[in-house]
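[Meeting: bench + compute handoff]

Bench side (C.D.) handed over the final construct sequence. Compute side (W.E.) agreed to return the predicted structure before the next meeting so the bench team could plan truncations. Sequence as handed over:
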Amino acid sequence: ATADVDEAADPYAVMAAAVLELLGGADNIVDVTNCVTRLRVNVKDETLVADDPDFKSIGTSGIAKNGKGMQVIIGLKVPKVRDRFEALL
């Protein structure tokens, strides 16, 4: 699902949509939480998840992978990105 996002109005929504795409899409997401700086996502199929340089190219600080557990390093704006991310699921 591609959301119509106004980049100027909501950069958090733009990042959330890009992160979701790199994580393999909404169908690949099991659940999502966050800590202070990271979006923590469990995925169904870790082979669908893009690599660290791809995440860095959209403005994150990268991704840490541990099996099906993914941590997208976003920074202190992570709660706002998570709100938009969950709205896309």
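W.E. noted at the follow-up: The mean pLDDT is 93. C.D. will use this when planning the next construct.
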